[in-house]
Amino acid sequence: MPRVVALYRYPVKGFTPEACNVVDVLDEGRIAGDRVLGFRFANSTATDDAWSKKHEFIALVNTPGIARLRLRFDHKALRLSIGLDNTVLVNDVLDQQGRKNIAAAIEKYVLKLDENPLSAHPDRLPLRLVGNGVTPRYQDSEAGQITLHSRASLAAVGDAVGDHDLSELRFRSNIVIDGLAAWEEQSWTERKIRIGQVDFVVAMPKTRCLATQANPSSGKRDLPILKTLTRAFNQDKPTFAIAMIPCGAGGQIQVGDKVSLLD
Q1: Rounded CA gap, 43 and 55, in Å?
Q2: 74-93: string of b/e by CB count within 10 Å (b at 16+)?
Q3: Mean pLDDT calculated for residue range 207-222
Q4: CA-CA distance, 31 to 159, in Å (whole number)?
Q5: pLDDT computed for residue 146 by the predictor
Q6: Is the pLDDT of residue 69 over 90?
Q7: Average pLDDT over residues 208-236
Q8: Average of per-residue pLDDT across 196-207
Q9: How far is CA 169 from CA 18, 30, 58, in A?
Q10: Distance between CA atoms of 121 and 203, rounded to whole angstroms?
Q11: What separation in angstroms does the CA of 197 have from each of 33, 249, 253?
């Protein structure tokens, strides 16, 4: 019987994950506390509380160096701390001045990176820290969607790319399971599954982007993940993990929960 072995949420889009023992799936189909903040470009026409595509944010797809940053978010106090190695770059609450301070610190860090989306685009400055810190809004899909992969599929990609310790953090899934054959979850499209208290329908395999090629520790693009997915596994598009939508009410999922097919 496959089981949940890890759970993650990402308070700030594109930044450090939080490993969780329990997550709350909301009825709307997102995980509470997941992607509740984001650093958006100044030239985006989207309002602060509106969804927009990831290419309007500082994210791993355009700024791999942010993988080096370590983030802590106090979901109750609405306080965000971001550090590099042993140095705290910023630690502030989400009031008006605090948001400016946090955005300025990230802007300063990003502008020093060799690969960044700001230096050649001054119209993207200043960055805006958007989101209320509570409502999950900034997933890659406007519909939200919760993502899942298996450790066997991760191992298969690691073997193909020549990294037997390939970090699952490259793929930024919410739910990680074990007890399946490699790629088995990719065959679940349009099927219903149950995880803990929540029933899902599997929407589709998740198409990947350059974010997966950023090393979660060094912030360097060091592995050809996208080419490996298409060439080694004969995929038309580079896909890894699945995107899921709850059927009915949300509920809790915790590490150790069983995963079962319902049809």
Answers
A1: 12
A2: eeeebbbebbeeeeebbebe
A3: 97
A4: 31
A5: 98
A6: yes
A7: 97
A8: 96
A9: 11, 19, 18
A10: 36
A11: 18, 9, 6
Instruction: Render pLDDT for 138-189 as a digit per residue (tens, 0 to 9).
Output: 999 999 999 999 999 999 999 999 999 999 999 999 999 999 999 999 999 9
Q: Element (H or E) spanning 245, and its range? A: strand 239-246
Residues 6+ apart with CB under 8 A from 144: 28, 29, 30, 136, 245
Closest residue by Cα to residue 139 from 172, 100, 93, 106: 172
The answer for 127, left when phi > 0, alpha when psi is -120 to 50, beta otherwise, is beta
Produce one character per residue of 224-242: b if its CB has 16 or more CB atoms within 10 Å, e if not.
ebbebbeeebebeebbbbb
| pTM, full prediction | 0.97
Beta bridge partners, 80, equal 73, 92
Cis peptide, bond prior to residue 126, ω within 30 of zero: yes
Question: What's the pLDDT band for 263 if we cut at 50, 70, 90?
Answer: confident
- Record the tokens describing residue 251, joined without a space: 């509920």
Q: Mean pLDDT over all residues of the chain?
A: 97
CA distances to 39, 96, 258 from 199, rounded to whole Å, are 32, 39, 12
Residue 48 φ then ψ, to 5°: -60, -30
- 8 A C-beta contact, residue 169 and residue 155: no
Q: Can you say how many angstroms the Cα of residue 60 is from the centroid of all Cα atoms in its chain?
A: 10
